[in-house]
Specification:
Layout lengths: L5 E2 L1 H4 L4 H11 L18 E3 L3 H8 L1 H5 L2 E6 L2 E6 L1 H8 L4 H8 L4 E2 L11 H11 L16 E5 L5 H8 L3 E6 L2 H16 L2 H7 E5 L2 H7 L6 E7 L8 H11 E12 L9 H9 L4 E9 L5 E8 L1
The structure holds S-adenosylmethionine.
């Protein structure tokens, strides 16, 4: 069973020896391309292009063994496979998920970046986009015929919400295992259509730097949705580069995060300060919520 717990290079120093050893075991699988520049195999960007046969064989199958859960944002319902069922199925088969499971951790930097579970800010964004603004209309209505990037999508709930409301969606996650065994099955659970999956969705795994390079000449997006992706300060430049290069000039990025990530170091204000140094962006705090841990949605547009 996963619990709230981060293992990053910084806070790992205080971790138990047993945990360090387990993480080290997995890290030995990290490949080295050149002696001076080690390359983490999870960092490599892959586009996952499921064929009709493979989708029916591999990706519909998990739906049959997993319990289905759902999240309702006002009258919009998004189904997803039970994370516990899928983790139980995957642990022992894939090093990233196994390492997280063995360490009872939600996040192990550079191995498993937290995509298997649905994080709180996803619910915040879903609620925000589906809340009626003038009694009849809500922001999600503007997603019809739009292009959307769900950056750090994890289970893909926000991308699926956009898809259900008429968008085409690129789903990006660090872990290929998450995309193949959680995100894609979740898209299928909701669309029940291999054709829709093939025509309106694309899936990319890997580190944000490699994703940006691989899709350099690819399309730009009307919307970028990104929830709980700024916990690691070392990734701020990568995320900002993606917003800068992948958002259309008229596009909107909704970035949702906890105000502070205790024990890891990231904070929303620090991210915003670094983003605004570019002097091409404008930000607006679109939504704030202070119950329990402060959460916020930052609306980012070009000036
Ligand atoms: C805490 S999870 C949030 C998942 C999901 N957005 C949610 O709110 O439920 C962080 C997400 O960012 C992705 N991520 C983290 N670091 C990354 C990196 N360096 N490159 C690409 N993706 C990364 C993870 O794969 C994961 O999907």
């Amino acid at each position: 069973m996963f619990k709230f717990n981060f293992i990053t290079e910084e806070n790992d120093r205080d971790g138990s020896k047993a945990e360090e050893e387990k993480v080290a075991e997995t890290k030995t699988e990290i490949e080295t391309k050149t002696e001076s520049k080690p390359v983490n195999k999870h960092d490599e960007c892959h586009e996952i292009v499921p064929s009709k046969e493979q989708t029916e064989r591999d990706y519909f199958a998990p739906n049959l063994v997993a319990t289905l859960n759902s999240i309702t944002f006002h009258e919009h319902k998004v189904h997803h496979v039970s994370i516990e069922d899928i983790i139980e199925k995957l642990a022992g088969q894939f090093d990233d998920i196994s390492c997280a499971e063995e360490n009872h951790s939600d996040l192990i930097a550079g191995i498993y970046e937290g995509g298997a579970k649905v994080w709180e800010c996803t619910e915040t964004v879903g609620e925000y986009l589906t809340k009626t603004t003038d009694g009849t209309k809500c922001l999600i209505d503007d997603f019809r015929n739009s292009s959307v990037l769900d950056l750090g999508c994890g289970a893909g709930i926000l991308g699926i919400l956009a898809l259900q409301n008429g968008a085409s969606v690129h789903f990006q996650d660090y872990n290929k295992t998450v995309l193949e065994h959680i995100t894609i099955p979740n898209v299928l659970v909701n669309t029940k259509s291999v054709e829709k999956l093939q025509e309106r969705c694309r899936f990319y795994s890997g580190d944000w730097t490699n994703y940006a390079e691989k899709t350099e000449d690819g399309e730009k997006f009307d919307f970028i949705l990104t929830s709980e992706t700024i916990y690691n300060v070392q990734n701020y430049d990568k995320i900002i580069h993606i917003i800068k290069t992948k958002l259309k000039p008229t596009g909107v990025c909704y970035l949702a995060a906890k105000v502070h990530y205790f024990g890891v170091g990231g904070s929303l204000r620090q991210f915003e300060q670094i983003l605004l140094k570019e002097d091409i962006f404008e930000t607006e705090s679109a939504f704030k919520c202070n119950d329990n841990i402060g959460r916020e949605i930052l609306k980012i547009t070009f000036k």
